[in-house]
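step=encode ok
step=design start
structure_in=
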């Protein structure tokens, strides 16, 4: 019963989105809120702990759960291995998911890109880069750029 009503609500929500004009005008359902791009410590040699010291955080801005399956996070490069695609992951209303660059076991709050291989395994450049969040259709949902060597992270939202 509960699942049925949830599905109905989801269907209604999806229908409402379809009739809402320019999707870009609406506030993003999921936002990039933070990028920690200069992993703690120096130099950054690309060990797993250091890779996992850099991360990006996404927040569900809505009052409904959103399954991020098929959503992607990518950086300013066009490299295929710099695209992370979410597997089945339900982000509850108002909750945050942390995507870390290195390897690890996914939990309900943290997922791992699974990268390794030293200094070239990092995703988020030390000074300047852009993060892109796209939904499964490839539409851009949110983006966050930074350009500062003075900070180790960027607060993307609230701006
Ligand atoms: Ca560092
Ligand atoms: Ca990069």
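sequence_out=
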């Amino acid at each position: 019963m509960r699942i049925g009503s949830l599905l109905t609500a989801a269907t209604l929500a999806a229908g409402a989105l379809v009739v809402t004009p320019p999707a870009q005008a609406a506030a993003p359902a999921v936002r990039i809120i933070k990028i920690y791009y200069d992993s703690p410590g120096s130099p950054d040699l690309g060990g797993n702990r250091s890779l996992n010291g850099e991360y990006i955080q996404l927040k569900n801005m809505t009052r409904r759960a959103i399954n991020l399956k098929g959503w992607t996070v990518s950086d300013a490069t066009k490299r295929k291995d710099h695209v992370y695609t979410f597997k089945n992951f339900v982000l509850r209303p108002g909750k945050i998911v942390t995507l870390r660059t290195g390897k690890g076991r996914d939990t309900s709050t943290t997922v791992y890109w699974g990268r390794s291989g030293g200094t070239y395994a990092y995703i988020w450049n030390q000074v300047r880069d852009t993060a892109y969040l796209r939904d499964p259709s490839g539409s851009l949902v949110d983006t966050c750029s930074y350009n500062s060597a003075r900070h180790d992270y960027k607060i993307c939202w609230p701006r």
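step=design ok
step=annotate ok -> The pocket of calcium ion (ligand 1) is lined by residues 38-39, 41-42, 44 (CB under 6 Å).
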